[in-house]
Every structure is written in C-alpha cells, then in structure tokens.
Specification:
There is one protein chain. The protein has 1111 residues and is α+β, with helices and mostly antiparallel strands. The chain is 27% helix and 26% strand. Strands 3, 4, 24, 25, 26, 29, 30, 37, 38, 39, 40, 41, 43 and 44 form a 14-stranded antiparallel beta sheet that branches. Strands 21, 22, 23, 27, 28, 31, 32, 33, 34, 35, 36, 42, 45 and 46 form a 14-stranded mixed beta sheet that branches. It has a nine-stranded mixed beta sheet with strand order 8-7-9-10-19-18-15-12-13, sandwiched between helices. A hairpin with a 4-residue loop joins strand 18 and strand 19 (355-358). The longest helix has 37 residues, at 1074-1110. The chain is globular and about 95 Å long. The model is unreliable at 1-68, 71-138, 327-341, 391-437, 488-507, 649-656, 740-747 and 862-872 (pLDDT under 50).
Length: 1111
C-alpha cells in the first residue's frame, strides 16, 4: 500500500480553517434556533421510536436465511403516551403506515438470534436480559436476498460509518472495503494499491461506492480527501452519498452547499416526501424510495444543505426528496413550515449518471427500517446495473450469503482489518470437543464460601472485608457494586419504577457482584503507563514486581502490552477449577485434603450448569484504569484499520506531539495503571456468598504436550484460600460491632467543612467554551461536544497516627458509596510500595459511577435446528458485548433544603414530575440518540455483522442523587478472531464523554479544554479477565486524590495534604444553553464535593475526640 503521509494528514485544528459560508464579515449567519420542550416537538422527536415504515411489495422468501440487522422497537406502553404528528401530506394516511408495520421484519423471542443459532448470556446476565425483553423486543431487518456485490465504503472520519457497514454487509456476499478518505493522496494512488491490473479508468473491483457522513464541508480538501475525485472519476459506477457524501455530490456537480435555513439539526426527526420518476426499460434508474410511504420519518444530523436555486431544471442534478424547514415561533417552540419556500433537499440524483445522495441518516437507529429499505433499494439497483452492463459474462446471481466462498482474501492489501474482522457467517453446531487447544500460562482455582453452609452466624459484607484485608495495602482495588447493598432485600427479578415510588437502583443485575484484591500474590505485578500528555522524559510503560523492583521502561502502549500478555504469551484461560475442602482427606503431609472439579469456560460444558457453579465472569487478571489520554493510542488503531497512517509514523507522531504534554499534567497520575491480580475475592450480593480466586503458573519446563502446575504451587494456592476463608469468617463474627462503630462515627459528625473547589476554567470561560462549541456545531464540524472541566481543591487533614497516608482516601470512599451508591462504583489505590526503588505513581480513585462503558461476557450457545449448507463449526469462543451510555441528567428531589420533613408521597410525586420532564426533554433525547448511534458504530467495527442492536433506548434510571436517561447497546463478538482489547481499541474513549463525530470532536475539545489532561476522569475502570471477559465503567462522579507538594514542613508530622480533582461536564448541542450547562456541570459534581467536605470534617472531628481522650 502506498501512503503519502504529508498529504494525508489533517493538521491539528483543521476545524478552524476559514469557512466562507460562516464568516460573519462575509455572510450573515442565521440566528441559532433555540428549541424548547413543547408537546408538538416532543411528538416529532419520539417518532424515531415508532418506526412504522413498511414494504409495499412482497419480499422474496428464502429458507435458512441467517443474515439480519437489528434495531430497537418500542414497547406497547410507548404508543399509549405518544401521538403521531399529523403530516401535511394526505396521500399516505397514518392508518396506512401503521397497517404495514410487520411487512418485512420479524420479532424474535427473548434470546438473541445471531447467524442462525440462538445466543444467550451466561446465567449471571439472565436477569438483565429478562428485564430488557419484558417491555421491549428487538427487531431483525432481513434482506430479501444476498447480492453478488463488491462495495467500496469511503469513511469521512465519521462516527456512524460502521452503522452503514453493518446494514449493507447483511445484503451482500462480499465484505465491504472500508477506507478513510485521506488514506491515499489521490484516487490513482488508491487504485494502484489494489493491484497491478487495476486502472483508474476501468475499475472493476467495485460494483458501487458508498460515501459516508462526516464533519466539515465538501469544499475543504482536509475534510473531504479523495471523495470529490472519486465522484468525478467514476461516472458509470453507482454512488450513494450520505450527509457529507450527499453534499459532496451536490458540490461536484455545481450546486452551492450552504448553511441550513433552520440552523443545525442534530438527532432530530423530520418527515420526508419524495418524487421519483417511473423506471423504464431504456433508462435504468434507482428507485431509492421504493416501498416507502410518503412522509416517512428520518433522523437528521447536519448543519449544511445542498442548495437548488430556481430554476433547477437546467442543473446536472435534481432534488428527489424534501423535508419541511423549521422556524422559531417563540422562545420555547418550533414549527414545521408546510408548503413554504424553505423546504430542504433530503435526496438528489444525477440526471445522467447513477449517482444519488440523501441528506438524512438511513443508518440511524431512529430512521429504523425505512433506512434499511432505502439502502437495500440502492444495493438492488447496483446489482441490476451490474447485470445490465455485464455483456460479456453471465448475469451476476442473487444468492444466499452462505453460498459464498471465503472472503478474507478480498481485503485491501496490507489492511487486513478493513472489514472489522468480518468473516463469512457460517452455520453449524458446536460440539463438546470444540475447546481451545492452546495451553494457558495459568491455572485458575475458585473456592466458594457458602453463606447457607457456613457454620458462623453471618458472613461479612464487602466493606468490612476490604477494610480488614486490603485497605492498608498501598496498591489495592474494590470494584464495588454498592447498590447491591440497597437491593439485597429486594426481588431481583423486578426493577424499580420511580413513577410508582420504587426507591431502589434500577440495575439489579449490574449490582450483583463486588470484586476486591491487591498485588499481594506471588505472581502479581503493577503496570504503569505514561502516555503522550506527560513529559517526554517520563513517557513509557514500566512493570513493577510485588517486591517493588522495576523491570525497566518498555517502549509500548498499555493496550499493546495487555494484548501481548493475554494473547501472545497465552495468559488467557479456557477453564477454571472449583476447589472443595475435605477435612477428612490428606493430599499430603502438609496440606489438608481438597478436591478439584474442572469447569470448561467454552463449548458444550458451559451449558450444563457451569455458570450456576461460577455465576460471574471474572477469573482474575488485570484490574485498573485507562485514562482519557489513551485516546491517542486507540486512534492509531482506527487509522490503521482503514488503511491510514498508524502509530509510529513520523507524521502521526508530529500530530500527537502537538496534542501532547501541556506542562499541566500531574506526574503522579499515569495515563493508565493496572494490577495483575492472581489472588482476589468476589462477593455475591444476591446470595451472600463469597468466592476466593487464586491463580497458579503452569510449568513449561517439561516436554509433555500439556504443562501443569507443580504440586507445590497448587498447594500454596489452596493454603492461601483456607487462610482467607478463615479471615472472612473472623471478620463476620465482628461485623455487628464494626457496623455499630461506623454508625456512631457518622451520627457524631455535626459539622461540615466547606471545601473551596476552584474550576480549571471559570464560569465566564466555560460559557465562552459553550459559545465556541455552538460555532463548531453551526459550521458542521461536530454534532455534539462533551465539554468538561476540572474542579480542584487542596485538602489538609489531621494525620491519623495509626494509619499510613495512603489509607486515608478509603475513608472518603466509604462516605461516597453511602452518599451516592451506584452499580459501577470503585475504589483504587496505586502507590509506591514501602522499600521499593525508583519512581512510582501515587493516586487514589474514589468513583461512584452509574455508567457502564463496556462489558464482554460469555455467550451460552444452543445449537440451531437448521444447519447451514456449509455445516462448519461456530467459533469456539463467543461473547456478548454491552455498553450503557448515559445522556440526560436531572437532580433527584430528596426533601426540603431547610431540613423540614416532608411526606414520602409528596417527595415521590415531585420526583415523578422530574422524571417526566427528563423523559420528554428534546435536548436530552437528541443527545442520547447521537451517542447510541455512535456506540452502534464503534461496536460495529468489531462485532459480527447483523449482531449490534439496542434493547433499551432512552430509559430513565434513578439513583440516590440524580435521574438519568440511559440506553443499552449490545453486539456479539467472535472470540476466536477478536478479543476484549480489540473492543476497547474500537470504542475508547466512550462516546458519552466525547460527542460525535468522535475524532474531529476530540480535536476541538483538546483546544477548548486548553490541552489539560482529563486523567482517569472520562476514561474507564474495571477488569480484563483471564477468560477473555471484561467489565469497565465510565469514570464519572469521581474524585482523584494525589499527595500535594504544598505541605507545611512544620506540620508535616501532624497534617496530611492532598490535591483533589473532580472532573465534570456535559454534552453541548445546538439546543444547549450556557447557563443551564454550567449548572448541570455543578450538579454532576455536587455529591462528590459534599462528600469531600464531609470527609475533611469527619477527620477533623475524629482528631478532636482523640485529643480530648488524651487529656
């Protein structure tokens, strides 16, 4: 592959390039429309949920069809509270559209069907799945056939491109070729990369071309790459442009691309009408809107439009679809302008060439089946066009996908990841012998401490165990489902309903397990990665052993290191061994008796009760965090995947160096830090059971085919399990007394020290940042920007004589988990071991996050009844990937601020009103939809074709201090070809913390936030298990503590000095208000700020009590 980095790279700040359409000195800019929540516009926005488009013609029926795409379908209750906006068109009444709702998609049962077989989750996720499908069921879009088409998809650096990829891949027998628009300096350069027989004038490698959406405008070379040349050089190849691709077609053929007369429209719905000429035998044209009714609903993400001045009959292109413009009628409402002169072109076509464009997004989850039908219409037209032009050969057949040959060899040279690891979807049954054969470096042992069978009166809660076993350790962690305590006495099968007064956490399944441990095992090690935001002298990756010895600085990033260890060094395991203590036996003279029961993680064995014995997916492994600045490394992977420059190139480094160290990065905080945990504990909040997990290393010194642990290693692990079990039981015996002491301390805190937090950027600057964001959105550079800020404070606490300094932050975390319990809470300590040499990180993370970033969990396979024609085995490892983005936050009413007690029913009624307002918020719905589409795109890079779907869209979840609008996105992962690290590289950082399109938006945010590192905030924290599973949160509602250098030497013996940082922010869209956004930022940080103040007050009061006792 030939690259020209100097001409391919888009310089940092390319979004600041002068735009002739938007310069106030040259052209007046229409005022930004401020949309407010009213009944009419709410109905319009909710139309993206209804999805009642249908096919007007009978579809082709095929047996054994295994390819489909999935989308979200509203539960029946949604229809009860929604009223369709009455369209101006009388040709397609609402009743007609609704009568077609089941024409060309099918409902499935509560299991997720993928590739013809049933996929379900391991048992610990069953509650979540049942809850998801209790009210909502996924829809499967099936193509009428699979077409013999080779398609080129040009990615304009958008965050929705792979939604197009996922949809269209279900329609063809060949995988799509995906290339970034600046991966090649010219069309000729791209064609040359395809092989010596390819020519730019007679290109037969592709039957059609798709031009993706993207930021910017078509007149800017830095935004559009080779797209304009692609259009000009391929007059006889069918082309479909979407959004920016649509605008590029208009620009190439002489039309002006200008500001939309209604301002930016992002994540909102509109009705589209169209006018297509009838197809004739002499003139083959694409009936792009065939089988779609007039006034069908679409999602729009755009600030620019293709202008068609009157008369447009003399132009090369013509409009074929329109939507009504929007006009501001008051400060709080907007109105559709029917029969106005400001109708906006939503579709166009060339009068002679097979080139078509749509301004809206057919791939959006909101456009739904109408978008899928439109893409099918274009692909079917391209297939017919290919047949008509293929005079020298037989017609290309329409075929089933499972009749295709292996397509992996069809990837573009030196770009083996172009198709998102998309193999041929093959049918077949999995047998019991289909276990991975590679011997792992480790063996995992698990012992269950059963609450029912335990002889002591009670087993302790996680807080008491962590405090007794791990809180004094310099390096330790607690992945704390603190809402599990709230839910322990509730029915696990029912989720709370704030509208009916349920006060519990809504994610019971996510709150079931807590995990804790430290680096005290014989195999443990600490990994610290200092990335590009740090001083160049500090950059690199260091591995520190249990003893504190450093292995030296490694020149690799954290994700490459984790992949190297888990995959190349075979740390991943495919089985675990349950340990049962048997006091009546003696395995040897040293260790009391025990028995081992091997449980295979994958294959048929996992279906026969293994998940009941081990109801969680964690098996030890890597626990830690990825800071936001790991984005520099994940962007490398994205570029390389689509043929662009990657990490290590001089051009790439020059860009990242400009985005690198600002001189303000805290040297105590690594870009990422992990512990390799070989000994840890898991607590089941549902059953009250504890699980002890130990890892032993296999011995590869023998010549046998399978390595085994030495007897000494196994015995050592089992002995440790016995010791820990006795410690847990001992803590349980003192649990009541410990709880009483803790309660007394909380009750005696009668004062609060108001800690002063200083924002990194003051309110005036933050409001200017929002204005800058609005300008970027208006200019088409972004749809949504998640602007963040850092609130910082220096804390002085009395030193506790009985504890080391690194133990103090745990006292803060104990308060935080009580004040704001959340399902993805966590506490993590990373400090220098006593007596260790060299420099090391020093920080504590106190996190009360309600948001899941990514989970990768084992899928339980059930062989399908109908076996495909190839009858080849399924992947041995299959995983379900899930993300739960949050966009939309409202403060929860907890009672009068003056302390007056209010009736419980009154409080519930107020919260019910708050929830209703949040649910109906136009702004929050638009934000949430944009991020859902972004997450679908990110998962679409690595998940199997047709498997990405949305079981929950815009649901309200209520927590101790806030109500949140949450969606759920899931997909299926082929574990034989793809792993958890691939998923992170495709999705990090979380879209809810960046905005969309992700790449361009992060560049803008880097300027707005003045290059200040976010640190762990808006990154992720959790585990990557040895069995390939993973669970990571989004680090929000968190405090990061580091030792402060600004301490008073005279009081060093009695005072601890800490620097506390709280990250907070919010998504900025065209509908955002600067005052509201600043208040939302403060709201999100409020509970953490109050808890820190309480912590300082508590430490001060405790010291006074100690002094009084001495006197």
């Amino acid at each position: 592959m030939t690259h020209h980095p100097s001409s391919l790279l888009v310089p940092n700040g390319r979004h600041s390039v002068h735009r002739k359409y938007y310069d106030d000195e040259h052209r007046p800019i229409p005022p930004r429309i401020k949309m407010r929540s009213t009944i009419s516009i709410l109905v319009i926005i909710y139309l993206h949920i209804i999805m009642c488009m249908s096919s007007a013609s009978t579809t082709t029926s095929h047996e054994n069809k295994s390819i489909f795409a999935e989308a979200w379908v509203p539960p029946p209750t949604y229809n009860n509270r929604l009223t369709r906006y009455q369209s101006s068109s009388k040709s397609t009444p609402t009743a007609y559209r609704q009568s077609k709702i089941t024409r060309w998609y099918v409902h499935e049962d509560e299991t997720n069907r993928v590739d013809g077989e049933r996929i379900s989750l391991s048992s610990n996720q069953n509650n979540d799945i049942a809850e998801d499908h209790q009210n909502q069921r996924s829809v499967h879009f099936k193509p009428k056939a699979q077409l013999d088409l080779k398609i080129l998809l040009i990615d304009n650096h958008d965050s929705y491109t792979y939604n197009l990829y996922q949809y269209i891949s279900t329609m063809t027998i060949h995988p799509l070729k995906v290339v970034m628009n600046d991966a090649f300096s010219s069309w000729d350069d791209f064609v040359a990369s395809l092989g010596p027989n390819s020519t730019a004038t007679d290109l037969d490698q592709f039957d059609c071309i798709i031009l993706s959406p993207g930021p910017g405008q078509p007149s800017q070379p830095a935004d559009i790459g080779i797209v304009l040349e692609t259009i000009r050089r391929n007059a006889n190849i069918p082309i479909l442009g979407v959004c920016l691709g649509h605008q590029a077609l208009g620009y190439v053929y002489g039309n002006e691309v200008k500001l939309s007369p209604c301002g930016p429209v992002h994540g909102l719905m509109s009705s589209v009408v169209y006018n297509e000429s009838d197809e004739s035998e002499q003139d083959l044209t694409c009936q792009l809107f065939r089988d779609l009714p007039q006034d069908f609903e679409v999602v729009r993400y755009h600030s620019l439009v293709v202008d068609f001045p009157e008369p447009w009959e003399d132009l090369e292109i013509e409009p074929i679809a329109w939507c009504n413009s929007l006009k501001q009628t008051s400060n709080s409402s907007i109105q559709l302008l029917h029969d106005s002169d400001e109708n906006i072109c939503m579709g166009l076509r060339h009068k002679r060439y097979p080139h078509y464009g749509v301004q809206f997004h057919p791939e959006s989850i909101g456009t739904g089946e109408a978008g899928y039908q439109l893409l099918w219409n274009f692909c079917e037209f391209a297939h017919q066009y290919k047949q008509r032009g293929n005079a020298k050969s037989e017609e290309a057949p329409i075929t089933h996908r499972n009749q295709a040959v292996d397509t992996q060899s069809e990837l573009i040279t030196d770009a083996s990841h172009l198709t998102a690891n998309e193999p041929e979807r093959m049918d077949g049954a999995q047998t019991a012998n289909d276990e991975p054969s590679t011997t792992s470096k480790y063996r995992v042992f698990i012992h269950k401490v059963d609450r029912v069978q335990n002889e002591t009166s009670s087993l302790p809660q996680p807080k008491q165990v962590f405090e007794a076993l791990y809180s004094s350790r310099p390096n330790s962690f607690w992945l704390d489902s603190s809402t599990g305590d709230v839910q322990s006495n509730k029915d696990e099968t029912s989720g709370p309903d704030i509208m009916n007064g349920d006060e519990g956490c809504p994610i019971t399944g996510n709150s079931r397990f807590s995990i804790m441990g430290s680096n005290d095992g014989p195999l443990s090690r600490k990994i610290e990665y200092f990335g590009r935001e740090h001083d160049p002298k500090q950059r690199g990756l260091r591995v520190i052993s249990k003893s504190g010895e450093e292995d030296g600085m490694l020149d690799e990033d954290i994700l490459s290191y984790l992949r190297h260890k888990l995959v190349e060094e075979h740390e991943a395991v495919d089985k675990a061994e349950m340990v049962t203590f048997d006091e009546g036996l003696k395995n040897n003279s040293v260790v009391p008796g025990y028995t081992l029961n091997t449980i295979k993680e994958f294959g048929q064995t996992i279906q026969t009760g293994a998940s009941d014995q081990i109801p969680f997916d964690y098996r030890g492994g890597y626990v830690g965090y990825l800071g936001y600045e790991v984005r520099h490394d994940t962007q490398c992977w994205i570029f390389e995947q689509e043929g662009g420059f990657g990490c290590g190139t001089s051009s790439h480094d020059s860009i990242l160096n400009r985005q690198g160290s600002s001189g303000t990065t805290n040297p105590n905080i690594p870009t990422a830090a992990f512990l390799f945990v070989d000994r840890s504990l898991v607590y089941d909040h549902q059953t009250g059971d504890w699980y002890i997990i130990g890892t032993a290393e296999n011995d590869f010194s023998h010549s046998d085919d399978e390595a085994e642990c030495s007897e000494e290693s196994v015995n050592d692990t089992v002995s440790w399990m016995r010791l820990v079990k006795s410690k847990i039981e001992s803590v349980g015996e003192n649990m009541i007394a410990n709880n009483m002491i803790h309660s007394i301390h909380r009750e005696n805190v009668v004062e609060t020290n108001d800690v002063e937090f200083v924002p990194n950027r003051p309110k005036t600057q933050y409001q200017r940042d929002i204005s800058r964001s609005h300008k970027e959105i208006r200019n088409g550079e972004s749809y949504e920007l998640c602007v963040t800020n850092q609130l910082e404070a220096e804390l002085k606490l009395p030193k506790q004589s009985s504890k080391a300094n690194h133990e103090s932050p745990f006292e803060l975390y104990k308060l935080l988990r009580e004040n704001n319990p959340a399902p993805f809470s966590a506490f993590a300590n990373f400090n220098k071991e006593e007596g260790s040499s060299g420099n090391s990180a020093s920080l504590s993370i106190c996190c009360s996050s309600p948001e899941r970033f990514l989970s990768v969990k084992k899928a339980k396979l059930t062989p399908k009844v109908n076996i495909g024609t190839l009858n080849q085995p399924l992947p041995k490892r299959r995983f379900v990937v899930e993300s739960k983005p949050i966009k939309g936050t409202a403060a929860r009413y907890t009672g009068a601020s003056n302390g007056v007690e209010e009736p419980n029913e009154f409080v519930k009624r107020i919260n019910s009103q708050i929830v209703s307002k949040l649910r109906e918020s136009v702004k929050d719905q638009a934000e949430n939809l944009m991020i859902v589409d972004l997450l679908r795109n990110d998962l679409g890079r690595v998940c199997q074709v047709g498997s990405v779907y949305v079981p929950k869209l815009m649901q309200i979840e209520s927590y101790a201090t806030v109500h949140q609008m949450v969606s759920t996105v899931r997909g299926t992962l082929d574990g034989d070809a793809t792993n958890a690290i691939d998923v992170i590289e495709a999705c990090f950082p979380g879209g809810s913390m960046t905005g969309a399109p992700k790449q361009r938006t992060m560049e803008i945010l880097d300027e707005i936030e003045q290059g200040v590192s976010r640190g762990p905030y808006s990154g992720c924290l959790g585990y990557i298990s040895l069995n390939g599973c993973m669970d990571m949160n989004i680090v929000i509602r968190s405090a990061v503590l580091t030792p402060s250098n600004n301490h008073d030497d005279d009081n060093e013996e009695t005072i601890e000095t800490w620097k506390a940082s709280i990250g907070c922010g919010g998504a900025i869209t065209a509908l955002s208000n600067s005052d509201d956004e600043y208040e939302e930022m403060l709201l999100k940080s409020r509970v953490v700020r109050r808890t820190i103040s309480e912590w300082v007050a508590q430490a001060t009061q405790q010291r006074r009590r100690t002094d009084d006792t001495r006197i």
